[in-house]
Amino acid sequence: MNYKIFKETLYNEDIGTYESYGIKYMNNIFISDVSTDSNSLQGFVDELNNKNANIDCIYCLIDKFLSLQ
């Protein structure tokens, strides 16, 4: 399992403090603030792991995931 989600607390000037989830790859690459919906992001991360998704394509895959939300 190369991909995992992580939880973070962030601040935005317009909305204040909020919880969001990011994607961690191999414990050394972190992509912050991908989604506030942990369940849908977990499903996406499970799919990345099942398909052995290449990290080089991760931003395109995230864009596609977000466009379907």
Summarize the structure.
By secondary structure, this protein is α+β, with helices and mostly antiparallel strands.
Instruction: Tell me roughly what share of residues is in helical segments.
Output: 25-40%
Q: What is the number of domains?
A: 1
Shape: globular
User: Ranges with pLDDT <50 over ≥5 residues?
Assistant: none
Q: What percentage of the residues does DSSP assign to strands (E)? A: 35-45%
What is the CA-atom radius of gyration, in angstroms?
12 Å
Determine the number of helices (DSSP H or I, runs of at least 4 residues).
2
Task: Describe the 3D structure.
By secondary structure, the protein is an alpha+beta fold. It has one domain (3-67). It has two helices and three strands. It has helices at 38-50, 58-67; strands spanning 3-12, 16-25, 29-35. The protein has a three-stranded antiparallel β-sheet with strand order 1-2-3. The longest helix has 13 residues, at 38-50. It is globular, with a radius of gyration of 12 Å. The protein starts with a strand and ends with a helix. The model has no long low-confidence stretch (mean pLDDT 96).
